[in-house]
Amino acid sequence: MTNSNKAAGSLVLLAAATSLMVAQAFAQTATPAPSAAPAPAITTPASPAPTPSAPTAAATPATPAPTATTPSAATPAAQTPAVQPSVIGQTAKNPALPHNLSPWGMFMGADIVVKLVMIGLAFASLVTWTICVAKLLELRHETKRAKKRIKVLGNDISLMEAERDARSGKDAVSKLVQSAAAEAALSDTVNDDGFKERVELRLSRVEAAMSRRISRGTGMLATIGATAPFVGLFGTVWGIMNSFIGISEAHTTNLAVVAPGIAEALLATAMGLIAAIPAVVIYNHLVRMITAYRALLGDATAQVMLLISRDQGRRSLRIARAAE
């Protein structure tokens, strides 16, 4: 009977040790950092050795059971950090927001009215720069020719000589000389005080014609500079209207509903300013250049009148000498 009790005690110890090893292995695989809870289970198998009774030996295997369940209870807590990075790593994207917020993307996503406003403002900007380049080249060329012709005109001693030098010229100063020579040829047989007035009238008309020709296109710049901001403002108002309509239809004040219309409105305003500001600056610069060119024509007119006065003085002197 004693041998059987000893054998039963040995079996109980072997079963407890086996269950403890299984519990430790399970805890190591389930959690990266196992707790020290299985340690008290090591001391429990030492009690059955002096007591050979079977009931106590049968009760001892129940103690390792909590040790096996204790690490398993911590497994869900250990697994939760593995789920959290995947949720945090996801970027929250709102499908209602436009993916392309560049100027071209906003233009393509704009309303048809806003698109027409933007196209009109882009065309106005193109017209502005075209006029700028054309008028700058024209004014520089005409100013250079006028200065050169005025220098030649200052060296002439008579209207006939000036007309000979300017006969093949196409610039404004040459046309002034040709017009004065034509009036002098018509009034050759008439010697009165009205000759200078007629010449001045002709020269003033030629000067006005040259000024109108050189000023062509500047009126368009003034129009663009004055109206482009208001056209851009119209696009702004229309974009804000679309934003409010989107709010009323979506029944929300979310930024995804408001942002596209506001962006289109601001883009239309920006394009209006882009078209208007250069137009005003270029217009003012061209006006200054045209004023300087008109001053050159005024100098040329004065030079022509001096030649006519000299010719009249010589003619009066010849008549006086002939009368003596």
Name the helix and strand elements from N-terminus to C-terminus, one letter apiece.
Answer: HHHHHHHHHH
Largest sheet: none
Arithmetic mean pLDDT: 73
> Separation of termini?
184 Å
Q: Could you estimate the helical fraction of the residues in percent? A: over 70%
Number of domains: 2
Structural class: mainly alpha
Structural Rg: 52 Å
User: Which regions contain 5 or more consecutive residues with pLDDT less than 50?
Assistant: 29-98
Count up the helices.
Answer: 10
How much strand content do the residues show? under 5%
Shape: rod-shaped
Question: How many individual β-strands?
Answer: 0
What key attributes describe this structure?
324 residues; mainly alpha; 2 domains; 0% strand; rod-shaped
How would you portray this structure in words?
This protein has ten helices and no strands. The protein has 324 residues and is mainly alpha-helical. The radius of gyration is 52 Å and the shape is rod-shaped.
In short:
The chain is an all-alpha fold and 324 residues long. It is 79% helix and 0% strand. The protein contains 10 helices and no strands.
